[in-house]
Specification:
The longest helix has 23 residues, at about 85-105. The chain has about 475 residues and is α+β, with helices and mostly antiparallel strands. The protein has a nine-stranded mixed β-sheet with strand order 8-11-6-5-22-19-14-17-16, with no helix packed on it. The chain is elongated, with a radius of gyration of 31 Å. It has helices at about 25-35, 45-55, 85-105, 110-125, 140-150, 240-245, 245-250, 300-305; strands at about 5-10, 15-25, 65, 70-75, 170-185, 195-205, 210-215, 225-230, 235, 265-270, 275-280, 290-295, 310-320, 330-335, 345-350, 355-360, 365-370, 380-390, 410-415, 425, 430-435, 440-455. It has eight helices and 22 strands.
Length: about 475
């Protein structure tokens, strides 16, 4: 439910209505134009609304409510002009009108002006951007706005994205999270592909609406950030940062080393709760974990099985951790599915580290590598897997249209705390607040795998383009 506009009107002693507050939501109004199309009618002006109240007439889906000397009017967003849609919209708008009426009528006459003055800030919290999230304006969380009021803190109006300032212990936290996606083929004719993207998430529990600034830094030989997009609350980004993350600069290679020296500085008024300060991509030259997967089928046994018999599969999976990557995982597991082959039984499978689990009904091998690679930075899994034909169990096990024959893959799932591939980190000493305040600062970083796939190098892995390395220029 959304509200296109709302009005608070009070009846004067002479009986004439007087507008005390109005709030219009342009983003909701734009949605109304798109949804209603040719049947769209603009939001009534203040004079039109007062005329309707004097005459006691109705206006489309407009909801009006009287409580004592107060008139509350809400114009909801209806998906169409049908009676059903308009009726539902009216019921939803009535809840907000009742909340406003209860809040205003509960005050003593002497404190009515104070209630009215605090209403704009409370509406910003209760109905941000025209979407009511709490129609009970007596909630303690919304009453924080009463103490702050509709005035200003630091001589500035209330930002719509931060309607309530924190009243607790001042604290700020920043988390750099990077995800790495990879597709490894283990073949000379098809190059491996991988990409890295990340974000900086922040949470600032601060009183009022202060200006916060922080620096994201990179090591001297770190990978520069690209395609940088910042949260709308960011008010200032240095020009050097914008140039350093420009798409054209990275694709044409016309940048100098000085452009990427950093730091990447952001200045913003933080929203309430956790938010993504920025997102970015990066062209990292290494893959954190390199895998080689081989799966073949014993022909003399496979010929007896087909779809209804037994197959014996020889598998080998070798993993290598890059020497520059932090060898301390929160978790590291490998999922090896056997699609379209029925139930599986493991025979003579060995791992050099960790342990192996067989999920027969899911036709899945789960290799829990553990929290560390061995000193050699290599781990391997070898053995045989016997699969039953899926004639009787066709609907009981997972299937995949492409994974037939030797077309198979292993999926690596891991997370590394206190590490990023780019080296990006938030300098805790760079977090500053204006006006100055003593705050508790927490920073962290992490690397997470996302669709990290190693295809069987003996099968036909799906590729969009295979370069011809045999041709010469």
């Amino acid at each position: 439910m959304s509200i296109r506009a709302l009005w608070v009107v009070q009846q004067r002693t002479d009986g004439e209505p007087e507008l005390k507050l109005s709030r219009r939501y342009p983003t909701v109004e734009r949605r109304a134009k798109i949804l209603l199309g040719p049947s769209y009618t603009p939001t009534p002006s203040t004079s039109q609304l007062l005329d309707f109240l004097r005459a006691g007439r109705s206006l489309g889906p407009l909801v009006t409510l009287r409580r004592g000397s107060w008139f509350l009017a809400c114009l909801p967003l209806a998906r169409s002009n049908s009676d059903n849609d308009a009726g539902i919209a009216k019921v939803q708008a009535l809840a907000l009108a009742l909340g406003l009426a209860n809040f205003l009528s509960s005050a003593e006459e002497s404190s009515a002006s104070a209630q009215l003055s605090s209403l704009p800030a409370m509406l910003t919290a209760a109905c941000p951007f025209g979407t009511p999230i709490d129609t009970d304006l007596h909630q303690p969380s919304l009453n924080q706005c009463s103490s702050i009021g509709s005035g200003t803190v630091n001589d500035r109006p209330t930002p719509a994205w931060r309607p309530i300032g924190s009243q607790g212990k001042a604290a700020a936290s920043a988390l750099v999270t990077e995800w790495v996606r990879a597709v490894q083929y283990g073949r000379r004719d098809v190059p491996d592909a991988w990409e890295v993207y990340g974000c900086i998430s922040c949470k600032c529990d601060l009183e009022g609406w202060p200006d916060v600034s922080l620096n994201a830094t990179l090591p001297v030989a770190g990978v520069p950030l690209q395609d940088l997009f910042v949260h709308p609350c960011v008010s200032a980004v240095p020009e050097s940062t914008l140039k350093a993350t420009c798409l054209d600069v990275h694709r044409t290679g016309d940048s100098s080393d000085e452009a990427f020296a950093g730091p990447y500085r952001f200045q913003f008024i933080p929203p309430t709760g956790t938010f993504r300060l920025c997102i970015y991509t990066a062209s990292c030259p290494i893959m954190p974990v390199l895998g080689v997967y081989q799966l073949d089928e014993e022909k003399d046994v496979a010929s007896q099985g087909g779809n209804g018999g037994v197959s014996v599969l020889n598998l080998s999976l070798c993993l290598s951790l890059h020497e520059s990557v932090r060898n301390a995982f929160e978790y590291c597991t490998v999922h090896i599915p056997f699609f379209n082959r029925g139930f599986i039984h493991v025979k003579d499978c060995k791992v050099t580290t960790g342990n192996l689990d067989v999920q027969k009904e899911q036709a899945l091998l789960v290799w829990n590598v553990g929290t560390h690679f061995p000193k050699s930075l290599q781990a391997s899994l070898t053995g045989k897997v016997i699969t039953e034909g899926q004639t009787e169990h066709k609907a009981a096990v997972p299937s995949a249209p492409f994974c037939t024959g030797l077309n198979a893959y292993a999926k690596i799932i891991f997370k590394i705390q206190d590490y990023t591939l780019t080296g990006c980190t938030v300098d805790s000493y760079s977090i500053q607040v204006q006006p100055p305040a003593k705050i508790k600062v927490t920073t962290a970083k992490e690397l997470i795998s996302e669709e990290y796939i190693v295809w069987n190098c003996l099968g036909q892995a799906p590729v969009a383009f295979t370069p011809d390395f045999s041709s010469t220029v």
